[in-house]
Amino acid sequence: MSFTGMARILGHPVFSPCRILLLTAKVPTKIDCHFHYLEIQALESKRGNQLSLTINDKVYSFLTGDDSTCSAEVDNMISALNNAIRNIFPTVPLQHIIKKIDVIPNTRLQQLRDLEAIASSRREVGPCGGFSTQYACMCDYHGMTYREEVAWDVDNIYVSLNTRELCLKDFDYLDQKDLIPIISALEYNTWFTKLRANQVKLSHDNIDRILHVLRKSLNLEELYLDNLGLKADFVNKLGSVLKMNPASALHTIDLSYNTIEDKGAIYLSGCISRLNKGLVHLNVAHCGLSSKGVNHLAAALNNNNSVLTTLTYLNLCGNSLKDDISNLHTFFSNPNALQHIDISGTDVILENLFGALVRGCTTNLVHLNISKNPFSSKKNKEAPISFKQFFSTTLNLKFLNMSHCKLPQEALKNLLLGLACNEFTKEMSLDISNNGLGSQGAHVLESCVHGVRCISSLDISDNNMDGDLANVVLAISKNKSLRHLQMGRSMKKHMSTIMDSVVQILQDDECLLQTLVISDCRLRSDMYNLLNALGDNKSLETLDISGNLIGDSGARLLAKALQINNKLKTVVIDRNNITLQGYHDLAYALESNRTVQYIPFPIFDVTPCMKANTEKTDGVMKKIQDLLNRNVTLKRNLLKPIPLQPGFLLTSKQQALERLVAQTQEAIKNSALDSIMSHNDINHATGVIQDAENSKQLLVRLQEVAKHRDDGHPVEAKLQQAACDIHNSICDYLQITTDKMLKCCKEQCPYLLHDEQTVQEIKKACKNKKQIPLDFITTCIKQQAGVDIMNRVRELNLMVAAQLSEQITDEVYEVLMRSYKILVGDASAIRIDSPPRRSRLSSSGSSRHGASDISITDSSHQSDHSPLVSFGVFCSKTF
């Protein structure tokens, strides 16, 4: 071995897990020096017996003999080096780690590649792309201590979460220097695509390592560095490293809450042009920018054609832009892919903004936050045509925040009329709180809001409407698409009048309101009527009455309402001056309530209770939490199979069938056997008797069919897809289950179901029983993830099973009765060779015994005394 410019040393390299060890040729052998694999800058082998490695700008040459044509040993050394490096970085090509590789002839390198392709197929990558191994390598490279807990967290927690985001906050308990190898491990890691370092204290060395990672990484796509105290010089360095890494995959940059100022925005403009995949997400909120810096950014966005089709998220909130943002207006006016725009609190004049939005942002925009900006720089100016036009033509807008905008009456009117004319967007959330709408704004709302069908959520809090709010509430009740209403801090006067209107809504049988927020109104006793109305309300799921000082009397009324209410799931009650007695009443009420699942801990009211009596307060609050957890657990337990008790269906109908079987068997014994007709009659009766015996356990067997179908449920795989796809999957599932149940019926009662007409009529009757509305599926996906879907499917299976069981039992009874009459010589009976009547299996007659009216959820209200109705009651209770 020889060092260029140094004395010649004989020896061979040894490849350790992270380093090359150079051994002396003397005895005893010792390590002369060693180098980390990441220090290798170049690898050359221009002769078969020579290998040169450039390490830290020094060249180390290895000679393996005098025959320059024999390359076997050198090739083995290159292969060993390649294997050692690929064991650490299995998903990155060697050429990306060692920048210069020159092996002559190229056939030698091709042979090494072929061998590597075979080895790669056998090499285990390890959890998270081998991160732990790479972390250990970086600890060796930087001379840092290897932390077992870091490797354990990644190999266990990160793997179980299946996340591709490395969050430095998970390791903020370590010293700053210990974060360096963690960050460095991302250089050649292909698993993690996101680095989040928000609100973590990072040293300059750590920030430099992040920049170094961006210079090397091929896979890092998203960078979140908010609130780190970064300045403009960091953005300048960021642009430099992106220029050095043309293969960078970065497309998401979050520098919010860092005072990079206009200088940093100008540097960031240069970064945007160097992003190969275009920019998808840009967040520079609260960065101290002015219109100058934003105009530079917007100019860069305009000049990059790919950005118009890639940028979906733009957040500029909290910067002082004012109205000199022509380049931003230009960007908005070009057709773009923006889905989320947040320019709240930027002092932008809104009436000038919508001229740009209506030209380029009506197609894809979903979220628009323009709150805390003045609508107009002049008083009493009419809203521009583009303002109303934007809201009437936007296709996908789901969230609009125009709070704190001092909306004039005409602007509010155009906003509502524009939305009323919109036939495209649905389920939109509108926030117009804190606009000082006053009496005039209340009249506009009263006259327009009922016709705005695209709104599902409305926030009109703190608008100084006083007594006019009562009429607004009544107008809102006429809007059947509105599900969520917030009206906090809105009742300084005329409280009782306004609350009467709210109570009137809740008592309406057609009330569809799911969320009601009446917080911080200090209503005291004026809240009592609303609490009384909760008992009978069937729609409200979330109620926020915090900050109303209702006291223990109000808590007692709420407790009584909760004892009979079966719809509320979330109740917010803090800041109401409720004492220990009030919480005892609530705990008692929750014992009989099975639906409330969440009551945020009322820390303001509980604190004085803790001071007065710590032990009792702790006990009652623990009881409340235990009962809430019970309700949540109860929801999950609904997915468990329902045990059916053996012999449960041996009710009056089955007992009547058993008596008829006994009578028919007796008639068979007494019948004359001397004619062919008698033989046919007896054989027919015997077959029906066998079906009657089998029908006793038919419902249990049908339940088993449904139970076996629950394994590997096809619906579970569809829960994350669109509601229509899930609806189709459930219909398919129910059809398969029904077919299997019918198959089971044929196996249990083959004599009866040999007739195809009977089978088709049963299928027709079952078809009406296994329908599930698409709206029901959509609600479950949004609110309950799929628990209710699975429960509903089980209910439908039970209903189909009940339908099949009852109709089979009825048919067996009827056919057996005809056979019995023939055997005893009743002239009114129909002969065996005559087709039996099918009226019981027809759609008009299927409810003869209450079968068509069976409802698992509402069975307690049935007037029919059929045993299957009792079965429905049992199932609903068991569930």
From TrEMBL:
Residues 834-865 are annotated as: Disordered. GO terms for biological process: cell migration; regulation of Arp2/3 complex-mediated actin nucleation. Keywords: Cell membrane, Cytoplasm, Leucine-rich repeat, Membrane, Repeat. Residues 841-855 have a biased composition (Low complexity). The keyword Membrane applies. It is found in: Cell membrane; Cytoplasm. InterPro entries: CARMIL_C, CARMIL_PH, Leu-rich_rpt, LRR_dom_sf, PH-like_dom_sf, PP1-Reg/Actin-Interact_Protein. The keyword Ion transport does not apply. GO terms for cellular component: cytoplasm; lamellipodium; plasma membrane. This is Leucine-rich repeat-containing protein 16A. It comes from Zophobas morio. The lineage of its organism: Eukaryota, Metazoa, Ecdysozoa, Arthropoda, Hexapoda.
